[in-house]
Amino acid sequence: MSIKINKEKCIGCKRCLSVCPGSLIKLDEDGKAYMKYPKDCWGCCSCIKECKECAISFYLGADIGGRGSHLTVETEGDIVHWNIEESNGILHSIDVNRKNSNKY
Ligand code: SF4
Ligand code: SF4
Fold first, then answer.
1. DSSP letters for 58-91
2. CB neighbour list of residue 86: distance below 8 Å, 6 or more residues apart
3. Which value, in Å, is the radius of gyration of the alpha carbons in the chain?
4. pLDDT digit string (tens) for 23-65?
5. What ligand 1 atom has the least distance to the C-alpha of 15?
6. What contacts 24+ positions apart, CB below 8 Å, involve 29-36?
7. What is the pLDDT of residue 104?
8. Number of structural domains, the chain?
9. In this predicted structure, what is the pLDDT of residue 25?
10. What is the CATH number of the domain that holds 34?
11. CB burial of residue 78 (10 Å; 0-12, 13-18, 19+)
12. Which residues constitute the domain of residue 60?
């Protein structure tokens, strides 16, 4: 599993660095985040949820039928949008209200 960081969107806030449990993300000399140890990523999605710039994508593995699709996360208040873009450009969004996360 791995992530991809869009340096055009990255503002160097370091939020992803601070939440990655494996300290796998670093800042380059331009102050942009990059994945230093991609093979060690276990896909916890913490960095993706923390990035307010939607600069981090998570590649969905073949084991779950990902076929080259990738995931980004966007947060608006209590609503978390899990956005999936397939390799053919088709978009899907799963919206979750965080207020309901422990409801059941
Ligand atoms: S959280 Fe997003 S904007 Fe901030 S350093 Fe990481 S990739 Fe860049
Ligand atoms: S998905 Fe988890 S393990 Fe992988 S880089 Fe992001 S925070 Fe680190």
1. EEPPGGGT-TT-EEEEEEETTEEEEEEE-TTS-E
2. 67, 68, 69, 92
3. 14
4. 999 999 999 999 999 899 998 999 999 999 999 999 887 777 7
5. 1
6. 32/5, 32/7, 33/5, 33/7, 34/5, 34/7, 35/2, 35/3, 35/4, 35/5
7. 66
8. 1
9. 97
10. 3.30.70.20
11. exposed
12. 2-100
- Confidence (pTM): 0.84
Tokens 């699709």 locate to 69
Query: In the beta sheet, which residues pair with residue 83?
Result: 72, 93
Contact 86, 75 (CB under 8 A): no
> Pseudo-torsion of CA 29, 31, 37, 41, nearest 10°?
-170
- Of ligand 1's atoms, which has the minimum distance to the CA of residue 11? 3
Cα(92) to centroid of ligand 2, in Å?
Answer: 22
7 secondary structure, DSSP code = T
Is the separation of the CB atoms in 36 and 29 below 8 Å? no
- C-alpha span between 78 and 44 (Å, rounded): 20
Distance CA(8)–CA(38), nearest Å, equals 19
Mutate to test the pocket of ligand 1, among 53, 54, 58, 74 (most ligand atoms within 8 A of CB): 53
